[in-house]
Amino acid sequence: MRILGVDPGTGICGFGVISVPKKGPTILLDSGVIATPPHTPLPERLLDIFNSLNDIIREDKPDCISIEKLFFMQNITTGISVAEARGVVLLVAAKHDLPIFEYSPNEIKKAMTGYGHADKKQMQEMVRLHLKLDDIIKPDDASDAVAAAIVHSMFSRNGDIEHETRY
Amino acid sequence: MRILGVDPGTGICGFGVISVPKKGPTILLDSGVIATPPHTPLPERLLDIFNSLNDIIREDKPDCISIEKLFFMQNITTGISVAEARGVVLLVAAKHDLPIFEYSPNEIKKAMTGYGHADKKQMQEMVRLHLKLDDIIKPDDASDAVAAAIVHSMFSRNGDIEHETRY
Q: Which of A44, A106, B89, B115 lies at a CB distance of 3.0 to 4.6 Å from A116, suitable for a disulfide?
């Protein structure tokens, strides 16, 4: 199974694709960020995210998408723009007929580190260990996207459907 | 000039297209709602909005899009889903290279009725009068979308650029 993890944001949108064989270790196929220069108009940023995700899906052929759930907003302006980017990710999933699963930041941290309040550094290190990489994945946003993909691989072993985005 | 007004929402997304000649009255070309059955998964709703808006733009050939600004949220869950739909509308604008303008609910009400706190009924009636229609536009969401388009026609007479969506 191949899983595309996405960490949505309009300034920087992280992504990562992992391959989870029935036996043997999980392999990192691709990771990076979709980044637009500062002051790029928001509609253009969203179009860039849309086009880039379409390309990634065509190239890496994931079977599903895993994304961090947005369930509260510390900052209303940032929250709105993250939700706008999320809308584009959900749209891309539907366009390619891929199921999309959502996990709260807390679920992702807990599944990766055993601790719901792990910091960025601990998270990056656990992603590195899980994939047996020499170095952590940079930047943060790419590592976070890969973490979302890894967490879905853990939950899906148990036939996870409760995290599927429905309404 | 042709203006596509959109009232974004994931359950129901209103739209309306007006033609604003240099001289003479504004004409309503098209209006309606993009509605999906209850319990349709969110990604499918967003895809439906995306496909429908693409069709409307190809058919009605608007020069720009006008949309209600989301700047506070009464209900966080509804707010997130409206922002997700908004993201798709902004994406469609960029895809067709159409400028998109945003007006706050207050600006729209004030421009249409002279009163920033007009109710739904007053708004529908003012939309009807502005377009010299026999009946109000139904449902509310379609009338609201047409109102956003009319308000942009008013502001754009003064060479409005401050309402263009940028960052």
A: A106
